[in-house]
Amino acid sequence: MVERGTENAEKDETARLLAALCSLSTPEEARAFLADLCTAREIDDLSQRLAVASMLSAGASYVDVSHATGASSTTVSRVSKCLNGPAGGYRMVLARIGDEA
């Protein structure tokens, strides 16, 4: 069971992280922040998920996406679920970077 104070602190920390991400203005700033925040492996994993979303959005099959990106079938499936889910984060970002299908 999560204590009430802990839950609020986690929400505050998440809000702070979101504000930090929104404060970034350039790819260079984003690269510097990610380099400080994440391991190289975590950045690679995030990059791979975006590549998977881009390929799925363009109509590629799960097998083709997995082979091209090296992502596991579980990762491809999870990204597909998010890509087609209600949050719309992948769709929004892909549209903004010109990678939408």
UniProtKB/TrEMBL annotation:
It comes from the Bacteria. Pfam families: Trp_repressor. InterPro entries: Trp_repress, Trp_repressor/repl_initiator, TrpR-like_sf, YecD_YerC. Gene3D superfamilies: TrpR-like. GO terms for molecular function: DNA-binding transcription factor activity; sequence-specific DNA binding. This is YerC/YecD family TrpR-related protein. The lineage of its organism: Bacteria, Bacillati, Actinomycetota, Coriobacteriia, Coriobacteriales.
